[in-house]
Design goal:
Layout: H1 2-7, E1 11-12, E2 15-16, H2 25-29, E3 33-38, H3 40-57, E4 61-65, H4 66-69, E5 80-86, H5 92-103, E6 107-112, H6 118-122, E7 125-128, H7 141-160, H8 166-177, H9 179-186, H10 190-199, E8 205-210, H11 213-229, E9 232-237, E10 254-259, H12 265-277, E11 281-287, E12 299-303, H13 311-329
Parallel strand pairs: 3-4, 3-5, 5-6, 6-7, 8-9, 8-10, 10-11, 11-12
Antiparallel strand pairs: 1-2
The protein binds 1-O-phosphono-beta-D-fructopyranose.
């Protein structure tokens, strides 16, 4: 529902309408570089944004952790834009990063859920995510709606800058409009994810691998697992495995392989073979129809077919369910994870 609210009012006859965005076409054409700054899940949404914006709009994007950006004396130029992402709009590091960007005089666009929050008030432009109240501490629909706005910005900027044709935009819009319905379909995996989670509730380490946008979403899936089930989990760009991480794989180690980029699918299948050869237990996520991975992985979860650029919205759902059921099986309080606050204001 939150995702529909974020996507639907902004799609009008195949034209992207970011109705709250006060950027003229000239402003969009003049952007030199985008700096996305955020913390936690919002930072992960920003990494998805980097892949999609660079791909569709051909604008260089840097993604920074707010807690680093605020102290590292970043170089911001006149025609740069800073995109600040924060569900609560109150995260202290993110607010401080915003002030640093402001001090350097660049235009600030924030993506915020809470209307009238500090970050929203301090920005030049605000896009609200309309996710409704986030009840649990761990962000779920906040992430989904932030990612949706990344797509909309990428499409809008891509069209204005002449990188996405009207025909391609219409196709992508249709894909985007199918996302909420496909998420509904994924809820049918609830029982399956519960069963898998109960089987892995005693895992000591969980490695989550992916390439491209699948890597970006792996970071978020890993955080969900850590923050609510307290299992040690790391996300790795699958191509990095051979540069060290592969040494950590031993008999029975759980590896979640996200393999939903058509262009990188074969490479992911090879990575699964590499970890299987070292005894890993592999749970793969693949697109419907891409069945080759089933020959090497122990279990495969299929998501509905979708354009590669929008897979993050679908991949994250079974993994959120997985993290939830692992946490429940371990007796953790999912809504109030230890040591975590809903908004980190200090
Ligand atoms: C950022 C964040 C959340 C996380 C937790 C702590 O919050 O790291 O992603 O789930 O709630 O804070 P925000 O800036 O998006 O409100």
């Amino acid at each position: 529902k939150a995702l529909k609210a974020t996507i639907s009012p902004r799609l009008d006859n195949g034209q992207i309408v970011l109705d709250q965005l006060k950027y003229t076409d000239e402003d969009i054409k003049n952007i030199n570089r985008i700096h996305i700054v955020a913390c936690g899940s919002a930072w992960h949404a920003g990494i998805v944004g980097k892949y999609v914006i660079e791909d569709l709009a051909r604008i260089p994007v840097e993604v920074d952790l707010a807690s680093e950006f605020r102290y590292r004396n970043p170089i911001l130029n006149k025609n740069d834009v800073c995109i600040i992402i924060s569900q609560s709009g109150e995260t202290a590091d993110t607010l401080a990063a915003l002030r640093e960007a402001k001090r350097q005089g660049i235009r600030i666009l924030s993506i915020v859920n809470v209307v009238g929050s500090s970050i929203a008030r301090d920005s030049d432009d605000v896009l609200y995510t309309w996710a409704g109240p986030e009840i649990a501490v761990a962000t779920t629909k906040g992430y989904s709606t932030q990612v949706a706005l990344m797509y909309l910005i990428a499409l809008k900027f891509g069209q204005v800058r002449g990188c996405v044709s009207a025909e391609e935009a219409a196709k992508l819009v249709a894909e985007l409009e199918s996302v909420p319905e496909k998420i509904e379909q994924l809820f049918a995996l609830d029982g399956k994810m519960k069963e898998l989670a109960e089987g892995h509730a005693n895992a000591k380490d969980v490695f989550i691998i992916g390439r491209g946008i699948d890597y970006a979403v792996a970071l978020e899936c890993s955080l969900k697992l850590k923050e609510i089930s307290y299992i040690h989990s790391e996300a790795y760009a699958a191509g990095e495995l051979k540069h060290g991480t592969i040494s950590l794989i031993e008999e029975g180690t759980l590896v979640v392989a996200i393999a939903t980029q058509d262009t990188l699918y074969e490479k992911l299948v090879s990575n699964v073979k590499e970890v299987k050869a070292r005894g890993a237990n592999v749970l793969a996520i693949a697109k419907e129809g891409n069945t080759e991975i089933a020959e090497v992985a122990d279990e495969v979860i299929y998501i509905p077919a979708i354009d590669d650029r929008f897979t993050a919205s679908l991949d994250v759902i079974p993994m959120q369910l997985f993290a939830y059921y692992v946490a429940v099986a371990r007796g953790c309080d999912v809504d109030k994870p230890r040591n975590l606050a809903k908004s980190v204001t200090v």
